[in-house]
Design goal:
Elements: H1 3-17, H2 23-40, H3 44-66, H4 73-82
Helix pairs in contact: 2-3
C-alpha cells in the first residue's frame, strides 16, 4: 500500500469517526495521526510539518478541554529544528 493510499485510508477513517466522537476526540485523533505520519515520513521537512500540526492539534485539545496548554510551544519547535537529524 502506497503512502498516498495510506493517507487516503486515514482520511476515510477520520470521516467515519466524525459521527462516533465528540469534537475533542477528533482533535486528539488528528494529533495522533499527524504524529504517526511524522514518524513514518522519510522527508525531514514533511516530518516537521506533521509534528507541528500534531502538537498544535494536541495543544488546542488541552486548552479547550483541560484548560492547560503547552507553554512557549514556538520555542519547542525552534529547539526541535536545531537538533541533529539523528541522535
Amino acid at each position: 500500500m502506497s503512502t498516498i493510499d495510506t493517507k487516503n485510508q486515514n482520511l476515510q477513517n477520520a470521516k467515519l469517526s466524525v459521527n462516533l466522537f465528540s469534537t475533542s476526540h477528533i482533535v486528539v485523533f488528528v494529533a495522533k495521526d499527524c504524529l504517526s505520519n511524522a514518524k513514518n515520513s522519510n522527508d525531514e521537512v514533511e516530518k516537521m510539518e506533521y509534528l507541528i500540526k500534531g502538537l498544535n492539534s494536541y495543544n488546542s485539545f488541552l486548552k479547550r478541554d483541560i484548560k492547560l496548554e503547552i507553554n512557549e510551544i514556538k520555542k519547542i519547535y525552534s529547539k526541535i529544528t536545531t537538533l541533529p537529524a539523528e541522535i
